[in-house]
Amino acid sequence: MERIEGGSKKMLSKKVALLLAGLLLAFLPFGIGSAWTHTNKPEFCISCHTMEREYRNWSHSGHRNWAGCGDCHVPQQNVVAKVAGKARDGINHGYAFLSDRIPDPIRISKHAESTVMENCIRCHGEMVAKIKPDQRKCWDCHRNLPHGY
C-alpha cells in the first residue's frame, strides 16, 4: 500500500468518508425540512399537471385561505400518521405519474376517502355533529367544495 505523510491512503479515505457522513447527517434535517415544506404547497401537488381543474376550483374556494392539499388529504392524527400518509401517497402518485397510469377522471380511493372525511370532521366537527357522518360523506352535499370529487 502506498504511504503518504501521516498515514495511509486507506486511513485518509476513512476520514473523508466519516467527514462526508457527518456533513450528511448534519444537513439531513434541513433537507428533510425543506422537502416537507415544498411538498406541502398546493403548487407541488399540481406540478404533475393532472390536478389543474381541482387546483383551480380550490384556489377560488374559501379553503384556499387556510387549508392546503395536505390539510384535507393527509392524515392529521399525529406526526407518524402524517409522514406515513405522505410517503404512501407520494409513492402511489409518483408511480402513477412516471408510469403514465393516471386515471381520467381521477377518483379518490376508499382509504383516501376515509382520510378526507376524518379531516372534514376535524375542522367542521360542530356542523358535522348534526348529520350522520357514518351514513353520508360530506361531499354528497358539498360536491364542489373545495374542489369537485
Automatic annotation (TrEMBL):
Listed EC numbers: 1.7.2.2
Keyword Transmembrane annotated: yes
Source organism phylogeny: Bacteria, Pseudomonadati, Nitrospirota, Nitrospiria, Nitrospirales
Species name: Candidatus Nitrobium versatile
Subcellular locations according to the entry: Cell membrane
Main location: membrane
PANTHER family, sorted: CYTOCHROME C-TYPE PROTEIN, CYTOCHROME C-TYPE PROTEIN NAPC
Protein's recorded name: Cytochrome c nitrite reductase small subunit
Protein family according to the UniProt entry: Belongs to the NapC/NirT/NrfH family.
Broadest EC class assigned to this enzyme: oxidoreductase
GO biological process, one term: electron transport chain
Gene Ontology molecular-function annotations: electron transfer activity; metal ion binding; nitrite reductase (cytochrome, ammonia-forming) activity
GO CC terms of this entry: plasma membrane
Tree of life domain: Bacteria
Location of the NapC/NirT cytochrome c N-terminal domain: 15-144
Gene3D superfamilies linked: Di-heme elbow motif domain
Keywords, alphabetical: Cell membrane, Electron transport, Heme, Iron, Membrane, Metal-binding, Oxidoreductase, Transmembrane, Transmembrane helix, Transport
